Amino acid sequence: MATSQRKQTSTSSQPHQKLLPPLWWQQSWVQASFLCFVALALYAQTLRYGYVLDDRLFITQNAIVQRGVAGISDIFTKHSMAGIEGGYNQARYRPFTLTTFALEQQVSRGNATVSHAVNIGLYALLVVVLFFTLRQIFQTTLPEVAKRQGTTILIFGATLLCAAHPTHTEIVANIKSRDILLGLLFSLVSLWMYIKYHHEGAKRLSLLAFGVGATALGLLSQEGSILMLPVLPLTGYFFTGLSLRKILSSFIPFVIITALILALRAAVVGEADTAWLTMLVNNPYNGLSWFDSLPTKTAILGRYLLSVLYPATLAYEYGYNQIPVMRWSDAEPLLGLVVYLAIALGALWTVRRKHFLAYCGLFFLSSMVIASNIVIYYGMPMSDRMIALATIPAMLTVVWVILKIPKSPKLLAIALVGILAIAYSVRTVTRNPAWESDLTLVQADVQTVPKSIRVQVNFASQMMTKAALATDPATKAQSALEAYQHLHVALSLDSAAYPSVYSALALYFSDFTNRLDSSVHYWRKAVRAEPSLAYNQVWLAYAEGNIAMRDKQADSAIVRYRSALAYKEALQQQSPADYKPALEKLYVKLGLAHSEQERFGEAAKYYEQALTLNPNNEATRKNFSFSSFNYALQQARQPRQPFDSTVVWYNQALAFNVSNGAVYAELGALYNQQHQPQKALEYYRKAVVVNPANLELQRIVRTLEVQTRQGMR
User: Fold this and answer.
1) pTM, to two decimals
2) Which backbone phi and psi does 15 adopt, to 5 degrees?
3) Residues with Cβ < 8 Å from 432, sequence gap 6 or more?
């Protein structure tokens, strides 16, 4: 039986059957064009969206990517987060994807519309490649659907459902997820070329070489494309009719290139940081044995299966504690185990008969290896983007099942596939707006996954940002209140899982309620939770210094602010984005504290340091001018003070406040004391311009004018 089937399906011994009737709308190019249009139309709305979520790690804040073409050499020789100051080495090596980002930055720096356009175009190309790959695989009519002439519906329908599938919103609308887009695109090209090579009698080695090259690019785009590797010989076994020896021999080059890319990746990435995985919010399995974590992972596999069929829930984050830790005594893990065992056993039972469902089952199980977290934890318990490849065998199965429905199968199948495609499309289009910005994303997902601590904290952070920027008092108050409420939700879920809750509450109390004691209370909790984190140490000392300033204890405040400066190097290394803002605030506060003690020279030096970090801060410029002026006054009133030094301080005051009449008057007096009436007159005249109603200044100017005229005679 197997021999006769090989004769039927082998393309080297007999011509292929024609799958499509010669009607114009059934031609492959027409169908491919329609699928391309669907893909473009579904995501056209994302063109106006911005950079969101992890886009900053790989694009906007990645110094290597921001260098454009000049950064490409570093992209290939360093791990993918090397361009982030203080960023963790999370063992990611995706140089081809980052190269596309670098090229975009070179051509249109910071233009998110261009990046979204590229993602949409790549997705449309991916859909077209999937269509032609399936046509190549199913060159001959499938035995299971031959009687109903359903192969055309199977190929087109499955591709249409994949194009419209709502779980793909993240890999298209989130620019960073281009790594998955490219990985999947190149993986499909490698499968297409591999099968085409066999269907054409293994005479065109260029096809094999092209497929091997696509595999390499897929792995350089995203490590997860390795999941396509076992699908190649699996597809060859089911749909070429060739012997296992021939299938596996042609598979060897793909294994070799995969091994070489993985070796390159290991050499570049080196030893990855694992400290971030010790936090429950990043790894809910931390502290659990592999066996104890298995029930939860099995339950999540069951949820993935539901998402593949129809994702009622879509979110960027299904982290702790949205999906609680489960035991085998719970129903959900057992149900997931039964379903997946049924898929595996059913596939193995029918694999020798090369049943179509056996192929889809094994393809699906292969695509879920990384998403399952059973072999290795990839960084999150569940993610919509991790099932992009799994949607292909799933949709093939769905359309195959539809084709098996009796009574007018062709028309009924077309109708059912169309209805499902419309349902998927509506879900996709309604999910897309969530990816417009960080704020819209957390606003949507805080409702969808309310038990995720990270989502609650991220939403609160966005609300505090909104409150800080709001000019309307009502909007400011409402946004701040929402932030506070969601931070308390996060605390109620698990107060120890995410120490950032404490720091966020501390900022809320200091920035929006001026309850400094409450702010210090939560900073102390944050320090106890993460004592090695410089960020917490710095802001605790800052908050304690603010309390001392409130209580008119400038000496104590200076001690606390200076203690915060001791962590500045650690802060720069651990939290580079917070380094300059934190340091600027500390220098300003030290300036204020020294001004309170009338130590204006030291105050001016701290203000000057703050201005090196942010030269456009108008308040700091005025404070620097004020301190410089008052220090110059102090010097001028002391006997035997260097004249030049005092003038320098007055000029520093003028540098940041050119209309300060008092400074001009003091400089005039200083030069007059030095018996330089011409210079004194110059500054007194400037003082009069600033203060024209000051009669005393006018009298001094007239007196000096007389003196200078007499001196000239």
Assistant:
1) 0.82
2) -65, 155
3) 42, 43, 45, 46, 169, 173
